[in-house]
Q: What sequence folds into this?
């Protein structure tokens, strides 16, 4: 049972966590904090949080768990503002889409990542954002990845008791918790999430800037709607992901661009067999991945 | 009322047309033709077609409407095999995903595109293919694009009566019929359909060939499933589209690659404002397109 949960950034991810924990009877009180009092008021009216404040110091004063669900670029300023005010027993955790940058933000703010800081990432989302999109079953049957750090050169390792508490917290929302290394997480998510989002944003941009037709979207079929759904995601969040997981994303983008170059070569050379082989392999991989 | 409809390639597209026309009481008899007698037998057992033959000449003997729903690369061989056996009153039409190449296939086979050949493309599909995926409401509230040709240098223009018949045929399936020029169609579809399919195939290939993780697909969220659904489409059909609408697709791929290059530059330069602007514009365009 968490007596007081403090959430920085009460949007889809933070709001859905609060709702799920309350539903499961695992949380007594939720305090919301952000720079925007209007958003916090809305979250309170929706019953997602009990109290709110725009003062980070006040927000964490009696917290047992502090959950950061803000865009990646906002992590370090928040950590700096609360670092001297966190109760000794409190656990910090986050929901950021990349983990190396949050670890670095903690090191920048604290000099080292605190032992009771559990880096985490719920693999869940909707194309809608904001607290009005929060739902109590967002994490049901989803994966949450936690990336505990090991002690290197005398630096802190993640406290096992803090890791166990955050693991149980996520499990009580209906999620499955898996552990990965920080770098491994960032590589995998660059591939499965960050690259697809970038392609969707850039595809829509290509079409809306193309000379092809003023009304090109009128001729888009159902597949197009599915394919571009993620281009309706929050631009600020995705801008930050591009900048904060840059190396892994640039690596995956490079691999993707190499494949496009190969395909173009096959097309120009009328290499029918090579194109068929490539598309057939992709279909097989996709069909297999989805059956899982 | 079509007395006898002859369908070449009784799969998702052709099978669904037969089912919709029969449901609407607009077709008396359906003859199926393909090289694969097993597929035809299955289509007959499913009640999609009445009779079948693997002989193209026999298939068209008493046809009123001949519908070609085969991969683009198979159009010309079929047209060559039936060209001297088409009843004078019969109308030929097709469901090919690109139109310039089908027009060219007709010119290659007949010396000119016959006046009673109505080029067409139903903007509908499912990631499943084959006659077992055919459904009678596939075309309900979908667009069907017809691309009649005008007389140039004494060549045939599309017969208005044939165009009217095929328009009514599609309308009776619940579809809305729109007219576009051949080239305009091919440009628009390269943007809205062909490019997204290629990106989906190549994204899945990138992931399944990446060194990132053996089980990278295990960490894919819902957005990824949506984004890659179209990578389960028929590889033969898409191989043919890549080859037969090559110029338009290479043009769109080039525009897309230019955007990726710009994004990478912004990422490397930490140009936060430019990335946010670009993603924000994409989200706005996508949200607007979908409301339509």
A:
């Amino acid at each position: 049972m968490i007596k007081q949960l403090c959430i920085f950034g009460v949007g889809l991810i933070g709001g859905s966590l609060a709702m799920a924990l309350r539903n499961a009877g695992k949380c007594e009180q939720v305090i919301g904090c952000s720079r925007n009092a209007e958003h916090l008021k809305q979250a309170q009216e929706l019953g997602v949080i009990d109290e709110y404040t725009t003062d980070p110091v006040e927000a964490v004063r009696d917290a047992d768990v502090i959950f950061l669900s803000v865009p990646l670029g906002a992590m370090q300023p928040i950590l700096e503002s609360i670092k001297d005010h966190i109760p000794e027993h409190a656990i910090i955790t986050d929901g950021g889409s990349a983990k190396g940058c949050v670890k670095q933000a903690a090191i920048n703010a604290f000099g080292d990542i605190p032992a009771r800081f559990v880096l985490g990432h719920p693999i869940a989302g909707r194309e809608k954002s904001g607290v009005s999109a929060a739902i109590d079953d967002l994490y049901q049957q989803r994966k949450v990845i936690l990336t505990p750090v090991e002690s290197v050169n005398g630096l802190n390792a993640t406290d096992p008791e803090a890791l166990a508490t955050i693991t149980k917290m996520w499990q009580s929302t209906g999620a499955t918790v898996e552990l990965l290394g920080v770098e491994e997480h960032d590589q995998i998510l660059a591939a499965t999430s960050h690259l697809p989002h970038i392609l969707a944003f850039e595809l829509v941009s290509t079409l809306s800037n193309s000379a092809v037709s003023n009304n090109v979207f009128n001729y888009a079929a159902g597949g197009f709607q599915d394919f571009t759904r993620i281009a309706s995601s929050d631009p600020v969040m995705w801008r930050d992901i591009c900048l904060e997981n840059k190396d892994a994303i640039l690596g995956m983008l490079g691999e993707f661009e190499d494949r496009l170059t190969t395909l173009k070569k096959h097309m120009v050379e009328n290499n029918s067999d090579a194109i068929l082989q490539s598309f057939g392999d992709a279909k097989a991989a996709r069909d297999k991945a989805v059956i899982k």
Remarks:
- The first strand of chain B starts at residue 2 and ends at 8.
